[in-house]
Every structure is written in C-alpha cells, then in structure tokens.
Amino acid sequence: MPTDPTAIPPARVLIVDDEPQIRRFLDISLRAQGYRVLQAGTAEEGLATLAGQGADLVVLDIGLPDRDGHEVLGEIRQWSNVPVIMLTVRAGETEKVAALDAGANDYVTKPFGVQELMARIRALLRQAGAGSTVEESVFNDGRLHIHLGLREVTLDGEAVPLSRKEYALLALLLKHAGRVVTQPQLLREVWGPTHEEDTHYLRILVGKLRQKLHDDAADPHYIVTEPGVGLRFIGVTR
C-alpha cells in the first residue's frame, strides 16, 4: 500500500528514566496510543537522543543517576522549547515549583495513573501543534560553525572541545545574536539564580571561550563586551 505523503507522522515521545520497568510500561502505553517512542536511561543518553533524533515531547525523570533532572532541563532549554513533563517521587509543592521554574511544562508524581499522564501528553502536544520543537539554531561564517540542535561547534573544520558552561554561554549568546545579553541574565541562566552578582565567574568563562574560538577581545569577530552591561554575539564574517 503506498504511503500517503500528506499523512501527519506520529508524535515522537522521548522517555528519560533510569527505571527500566517505567520505560517499558510507558513504551507499551504510548505505542498503543499511536506514538513513536524513544528511550534513554541516563541524562547524557537523553540529551544525545533529543539532539540527534528530535522529539515532540519529553518525559523526564528528576532523579537520574548521572545528573539532576533540573540541570538536564536547564540544558535542554538553552536550545529547545520541546514540551517537557517532569516525573518524580517527591510530591512536595517546593519540588513542583522548582521544576516549573526550571522550564517544565507539567509535573507528574510517581506512582502515576497512565490515563492521567496520557491526557497531559495529549494536551501539551495540542498546544505545541505536535510538530518537532527542537530548534536548529545554526551559525556558519565559513570558519566557525555552530549547530545548537546537534550540539556541534567546529572551528576551521575541527571540533571545539567546550565545557558544559562554555557551551551554555555560547548557546545563550547565539540565541540572542545581535542583542546585548546582560551580565545578570548570563549569570542567572548559566550558573543559576544565586550567582547574579558573581561577575568574576563570567569574566573567566568568556575568556576561556574566546581563547577556544580564537576570538581576540580587542578585535572581536564573535563576542563583544559591552562594558558594564553584558555581552553580544555579532558573528562578523571574516
């Protein structure tokens, strides 16, 4: 039977949870509803799957073995607006508020009813239009290539080894290319809300990032310092 080229492909749901039984249960339930399912047992595997294959919605466990779920969500939000439902065994209001403040779209406490979770997934997919929401912000001037969707940064064809915070800073600046991002915003989004006054952290990190990008602060081609205000990504073609 020929494939209908106008047919809407099934929404892709990525499950990031270290409990195999939870993943299996959700996999069966989601496939029964017609969804495509991707699975990951660790934070790093989940991030790689989202960047490489994309997803229309992510179900993310807070208590992952390699990284805290809030931290993972913060990293996702640097380059994607994909809807995220957080899973946790912690039922307190403080935990729920923290997840929502970190960028979660919804929050479900374990153990959960599968019908309730399916209803929440359907609601979020309706809001998002059920299309892939992974943003593929790309910059390429022939020398520096940045692809946020694939988490790739190369300079003169060679991969640039960036730390998590260096990448977070670069991604944030690229998302606001041409506009000044203030020091408090940079510190808040890269280090967290308790570090808005720690400007020395930012000076050190941007220095390391410029060094790796071979970007001279005195004659910048990528990152400009606006004294006393913040940073701006300009991306002047050489």
Number of domains: 2
**Percent strand:** 15-25%
Nearest-angstrom radius of gyration?
20 Å
Helix content: 25-40%
The CATH architecture category of the largest domain equals: 3-Layer(aba) Sandwich
Name of the CATH first level of the largest domain: Alpha Beta
The order of strands across the largest sheet is: 2-1-3-4-5
Helical region count? 8
Structural class: alpha/beta
Uncertain residue segments: 1-8, 130-136
**Number of E-state strands:** 12
Anisotropy-based shape: elongated
Key features of this structure:
238 residues, Rossmann fold, Arc Repressor Mutant, subunit A, 2 domains, five-stranded parallel β-sheet, four-stranded antiparallel β-sheet, elongated, disordered N terminus
